[in-house]
């Protein structure tokens, strides 16, 4: 019975968790927790295909790390805030992170 209560409690906490968000081409995405083995760093990540390219955004201790790749070209950006548009292989990627 105790193990059931622990599972319900953990689910309840995660169900209302608030994650950092960014905007990619006007669409809001959640950055989800990422586990780092053997490290005590909390980070949140979004990775996925966007406009025929690949976007990865990570937030670590209030800093954002952005990587965009498309057709062999790439952009890497780091900062406390990211609010810019990047043209890669004739495609615009508008990124905004708080």
Oligomer: single chain
**SSE pattern:** HEEEEEEEEE
Count of alpha and pi helical runs: 1
Strand content: over 45%
End-to-end CA span = 43 Å
Q: Poorly predicted ranges (pLDDT <50, ≥5 residues)?
A: 2-13
- Shape annotation: globular
- Which sequence of strands runs across the widest sheet? 3-4-5-6-7
- Backbone structural class: mainly beta
Structure description:
The protein is mostly beta strands and 98 residues long. Helix content is 14%, strand content 57%. The chain contains one helix and nine strands. It has one helix spanning 2-15; strands at residues 21-24, 27-30, 32-34, 43-50, 53-60, 63-70, 73-79, 82-88, 91-97. The strands form two sheets. The chain has a five-stranded antiparallel beta sheet with strand order 3-4-5-6-7, with no helix packed on it. Strands 2-1-9-8 form a four-stranded antiparallel beta sheet, with no helix packed on it. Strand 8 and strand 9 (91-97) form a beta hairpin. The longest helix has 14 residues, at 2-15. It starts with a helix and ends with a strand. Residues 2-13 have low confidence and may be disordered.
Short overview:
The protein has 98 residues and is mainly beta. It has one helix and nine strands.
Write the layout of secondary structure elements.
Elements: H1 2-15, E1 21-24, E2 27-30, E3 32-34, E4 43-50, E5 53-60, E6 63-70, E7 73-79, E8 82-88, E9 91-97
Antiparallel strand pairs: 1-2, 1-9, 3-4, 4-5, 5-6, 6-7, 8-9
Question: Which features does this protein show?
Answer:
five-stranded antiparallel beta sheet; 98 residues; single chain; disordered N terminus
